[in-house]
Amino acid sequence: SWKIDWTPDFIFPGMKKDYKVRMQIEQGKRGEIYDRNGKGLATNGKATEVGIIPEKLGETAAQTKEIVAQLLDMSIEEVEQKLTAKWIKPDSFVPIGILKEGTRQNDYIELEGVSSHPVNIRTYPLGEAAAHLTGYIGKVNAEELKS
């Protein structure tokens, strides 16, 4: 019988046996769309994404989920659905939603198991008034996808 003398540096030169490889996907910056007067129709912005780390929820888990649902204008069932996705591990940050502009950090920062971070978002300053110029601006649900 024969064997292969294998080392990780066959794939990544200089890589040692105990090194780890981490893949990170970076999204390209989206182009912005302006009207002839320079007013934004579709622009890039920043928002705060709130998520839950299941193993850190503690004894007040039900109350915390309820507060998060209220902050994000969603039902507790929607929060629960996101927390029961197959990919989730106890120590995972589970993104629940984007906070409305003007929400104070004090409204959620002290909740056990809740965390947040800044994210890039697409903003439509004129909302539906310019939707015909910028294309589809919402998420597609399963029913719309079928049609």
How is the topology of this model organized?
Elements: E1 33-34, E2 40-52, H1 61-71, H2 76-83, E3 94-98, E4 114-123, H3 131-134, H4 142-146
Antiparallel strand pairs: 1-2, 2-3, 2-4
Helix pairs in contact: 1-2
Structure, described:
By secondary structure, this protein is of the alpha+beta class. The protein has one domain: 2-Layer Sandwich (Ribosomal Protein L30, Chain: A). The chain is built from 4 helices and 4 strands, in the order E-E-H-H-E-E-H-H. Strands 1, 2, 3 and 4 form a 4-stranded antiparallel sheet that branches. The termini are far apart. The model has no long low-confidence stretch (mean pLDDT 86). It is an enzyme of class 3 (hydrolase). Pfam families: PBP_dimer. Its EC number is 3.4.16.4.
Mean pLDDT: 86
* SS field, number of helical segments: 4
Specify the oligomeric state.
Answer: single chain
The SSE order reads EEHHEEHH
The number of domains: 1
Radius of gyration: 22 Å
Shape: extended
- Identify the CATH homologous superfamily: Penicillin-binding protein 2a, domain 3
Main structural class: alpha+beta
Contiguous runs where pLDDT drops below 50 for at least 5 residues: none
CATH fold title: Ribosomal Protein L30, Chain: A
Number of strands: 4
Task: Summarize the biggest pleated sheet.
Answer: 4 strands, antiparallel
Q: What's the CATH class, please?
A: Alpha Beta
The helicity comes to 10-25%
- Termini distance? 58 Å
Pfam families: PBP_dimer
Catalytic activity: Preferential cleavage: (Ac)2-L-Lys-D-Ala-|-D-Ala. Also transpeptidation of peptidyl-alanyl moieties that are N-acyl substituents of D-alanine
GO cellular component, one term: plasma membrane
GO molecular function: penicillin binding; peptidoglycan L,D-transpeptidase activity; serine-type D-Ala-D-Ala carboxypeptidase activity
